[in-house]
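User: Just a sanity check before I run the rest of the batch. Below are the structure tokens for the first item. I only need the designed sequence back.
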């Protein structure tokens, strides 16, 4: 499966339905209400009207899908889904969406023993206690292989770590 298709599945079904309904409603509304009742559109060529009424609602549909992606992606990353969705909706000019992409957490990883989703960098599983990474013998925080000292407490690590 391609990466794009995998990421598109993060968007909830409700966001897809909302985006499609809004797109169709705005296209129909444009052809039935806006264009016939506005004299400014009378001078436009037919192809220009068609392009305008098909492309402009697409911006709103893409915005709805981006907000849906923020909601679904925040859920799968263990972040505050409602808070990020509201920020994406109410901060203007898509700044909330941009902030989400800058500040989002890394994806959760599954415990090798029980399958519980845990944050990257945890030394132990919160459910079963299985070691997920090397741990400092003094403070038990996660350390990387090859480090000579713990970054949290400064304790000297063994060479085999």
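Assistant: Here's the designed sequence for the first item:
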């Amino acid at each position: 499966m391609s990466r794009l298709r995998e990421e598109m599945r993060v968007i909830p079904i409700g966001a897809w339905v909302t985006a499609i309904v809004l797109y169709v409603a705005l296209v129909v509304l444009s052809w039935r209400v806006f264009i016939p009742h506005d004299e400014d559109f009378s001078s436009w060529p037919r192809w220009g009207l068609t392009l305008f009424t098909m492309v402009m609602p697409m911006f709103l549909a893409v915005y709805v899908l981006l907000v849906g992606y923020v909601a679904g992606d925040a859920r799968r990353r263990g972040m505050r889904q409602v808070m990020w969705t509201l920020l994406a909706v109410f901060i203007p000019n898509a700044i909330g969406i941009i902030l989400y992409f800058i500040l989002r957490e890394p994806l959760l990883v599954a415990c090798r023993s029980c399958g519980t989703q845990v944050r990257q960098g945890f030394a132990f599983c919160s459910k079963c206690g299985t070691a997920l990474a090397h741990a400092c013998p003094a403070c038990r925080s996660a350390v990387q292989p090859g480090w000579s000292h713990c970054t949290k407490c400064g304790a000297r690590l063994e060479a085999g770590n």
